[in-house]
Amino acid sequence: MNSSDNKLAKTNGLCLSVKNEKRSDYLEWDEYFMAMTFLELRRGAPGHNNNAAIILNQRKIIISMANSCLDTNKHELHTSHAEYKALQKIQEGNVMYTTSFPCDKCAEAIAQAGIKEIVFYQNNTDDNIAKELCDKYGITYRQFNTKKKRIELDFSQFCDD
């Protein structure tokens, strides 16, 4: 078997095929973190105002995740801003991924928490106050951009041998 052949690697009970080239389904960092944000969204209450946010530290480690469903003992339909909830769980972070651009109140809380960059999926508002606040406090923001329209996770690709 030469270095370009497939190999089988076992890590913590998972069997994975190891290749020496880049995978066809490889996720760039932005794609990975936005996918994680949408997975967090799936844990929230259903409805048109649901949102999710994650916060990373400088080493690309997720330090906080939140969705717009209030944390209660029951899965109720009460909502809160996901960005604000994620900020309550950290002391200071670097990058926030969010499913939609923050409102002005969340942008203010983001600035106070020391977030330096926001990556958002969509902008649902024409309100420029949040963008002005980000500009004022030196927070960069950009819309998530990818050629991928679908990310799939097939659990059957792992084995328990």
From TrEMBL:
One of its GO terms (cellular component) is cytoplasm. PROSITE patterns: CYT_DCMP_DEAMINASES_2. The keyword Hydrolase applies. SUPFAM superfamilies: Cytidine deaminase-like (SSF53927). Its EC number is 3.5.4.12. One of its GO terms (biological process) is dTMP biosynthetic process. Keywords: Hydrolase, Nucleotide biosynthesis. Residues 28-132 form the CMP/dCMP-type deaminase domain. It is an enzyme of class 3 (hydrolase). InterPro entries: CMP_dCMP_dom (IPR002125), Cytidine_deaminase-like (IPR016193), dCMP_deaminase-rel (IPR015517). The keyword Hydrolase applies. Transmembrane segments: none annotated. One of its GO terms (molecular function) is dCMP deaminase activity. This is dCMP deaminase. It comes from Tribolium castaneum.
